[in-house]
Amino acid sequence: MIPYQSLQEAEAVLGRNLTVAETFWFKYSASKSDYFLYCHNILFLFFIFSVVPLPMVFLEIKRLSRFDKYKIQPKVRLSLAEMLKCYKDVMRMFFLVVGPLQLVSYPSLKMIGVRTGLPLPSGWEILFQLLVYFVVEDYTNYWIHRFLHNKWGYDKIHRVHHEYQAPIGFAAPYAHWAEILILGIPSFLGPAMCPGHMITFWLWIALRQIEAIDTHSGYDFPWSPTKYIPFYGGADYHDYHHYVGEQSQSNFASVFTYCDYIYGTDKGYRYQKKVLRKLKEELTNGVEQNGGSYKMQDYKSD
Predict the structure, then answer these.
(1) How far is CA 170 from the centre of its chain?
(2) In the prediction, which pLDDT does 286 show?
(3) The model's pTM
(4) What pLDDT score does 63 carry?
(5) How far is CA 106 from the centre of its chain?
(6) How far apart are CA 102 and CA 181, in angstroms?
(7) From CA 22, how far away is CA 29, in angstroms rounded?
(8) Among 97, 157, 175, 248, whose Cα sits 20 to 30 Å from the Cα of 149?
(9) How far apart are CA 136 and CA 253, in angstroms?
(10) Which contacts of 229-236 are long-range, i.e. CB under 8 A and separated by 24 or more positions?
C-alpha cells in the first residue's frame, strides 16, 4: 500500500510532479493492500489461459488454406471437443493448484522485496529486469526439464504434458500438478535475484505464459515479431520436442536455444532440419518423396 495520503504528499516526498502513469497507479493502488495487488496474477493468468490461445483454436477449426501451410504438423488435427477438454483440464488444475499457489506464495514475494509504491520503474529498468527473469528462468527450466525426461521423471510426472504430440495453445500449461509446482521455482528465481516493482512482476508472469502459449501453438508464422529475438526458440523448435516425445533428448529449452546448443541437446533437431532441407531440394528437382507431419518418420531423431 502506498504510504501517502494524497497526490500532493507523494509529489512533495518525491520532489517532482508525478507522471501520468504514476498518477494512475496512485489512484488505483493507494487504498489497496499489497496482497490484493499481488492476487491480480490470478486474474491475469485466467485471462491469458482462456483468451490468448483462441486465434489458434479458430485456425484449427476453420482450417483456412492460406494459414494451413504454417501448421507445423499439418496431418494432426484436434476437434473442438478435444481442445475444450484440454481447456477444462487446464482450468481444473488452475483452480486446484495454480490459484491456491498464488494465494499462499505472497509472503515469499514480500521477503525478496518486490515493491508496490512510488516511483514507478523506468521503461529501461523494466526491460532489464524482464531480460534477467527470462534468462534465469530459461537456464533453470532447461535443467529441470532435462531431468523430467529421465525414466522416473517422465513416467511419474512429465508424460502428462506430452500427451499432446502436436501441441496446441491450451496445452501450454497442461501438466501434472507436481510439474506445475516444480516449474514455479524457475519463475520465482529471477525476481528473487533482481527484485523490482509489482508491475514488472505482473508483466513477467503474463509474458512468460504468453510465450509458452506461442511455443505450443502448433503454427510457425514467418511474420511473428519473435523472429527478431536473438536465440528465441519459438513454436517450430518446441514442436519438435513434442513430436519426438518420450525418448526426446533434444530441445529442452523453454524460451531461448543457447543451452541446447552449448550442451549439445539440439542435435536431433538440427539433423532433422538438414534432412528436410535436402528433401526440399530433391522435391524442387522433381524427385518424388512421401511425407508425413515431419515428412518422414525414419528421420525422427533425438
Answers:
(1) 11
(2) 64
(3) 0.89
(4) 84
(5) 22
(6) 11
(7) 10
(8) 97
(9) 12
(10) 231/256, 231/257, 231/258, 232/256, 232/257, 233/257, 235/72, 236/72
